[in-house]
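task queued by scheduler; priority normal; single chain, no ligands, no partner chains; default sampling; output format set to structure tokens
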Amino acid sequence: MGTDMRTKPLVPRRILLGQGAAFLALLSGRSRAAEPAPSTPRWAAAEARLIDAMPYERIEVPGAEALARWQSLRTTRPDVWPVIVGGDEDLSRMAEQMLEADDRSVEAILSVAARLEHPQSLLDLRAKETAEWRNYLKVHPDVGGEDEAQAPEIGDWPRSPPADTGLTVAEDILARRPFPLVHILLLPTTRPWEVPAYLKWGGWNECPPAEIHVAAMRRWATDYGAEIVGISGDVINVQVKRRPSTRDQAIALAQEQYAYCADIVDQGTGEIAPLAAALMASDWWFFWWD
């Protein structure tokens, strides 16, 4: 698999108070897309203009039929990559991120990504973030943040893995009920790892910028046959063709995924071993950034 993540420090989780919270959004130079404003005719019209400005073909389907339609499109439209992007609110947030938050071209993002090697590029990013955070604390000691936090314990291997997440972007994840309507974008690429570049997705809070996502997904496509099926405002759903075959391999992959998306452990499994067990038991990977 290349670099063993167990021999390298993982990005520290930051406990932020007061003005320290704003710093987290500034690490990449771009803040996360704003939360939707209260519904008004003027706001709805602005949302509609953003969505209409998205340059990709879009299909609307009932949430319960989204995965089946995606699978059909993979067969009938080999010239594009379909990606399920959630409901109206998710599509609006994605349009804002793509058209307003990142002014780089798709080609520029892909050019940067082509020069990156995962996981080293991710480790370099996290090391840079850590150094910037430490420097910030020196200048603003009153913030109350912690310099570092310990990486999660590996923990005990669970008797049974966590429940399979499956495709989540097409449903109300709390109610586990499909959305009445979801959107599928048809992106002009046949390479699933390029999806974040075409959507200019990422670059807010601890969510890496688009080129880091591209490099990671490209590597995971090679190692595990990983394909992005769904991507919403803050979630990526990935389906894999090959699971890790041993516990050691699964633990190394889980630690790599923790460096990529700490929330899946810090606010999810709690320890590395349950995530590793899930990676061996399921064809679906779930990533979420708070």
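post-processing summary
- The chain has one domain: 58-128+152-288.
- Residues 1-37 have pLDDT under 50 and may be disordered.
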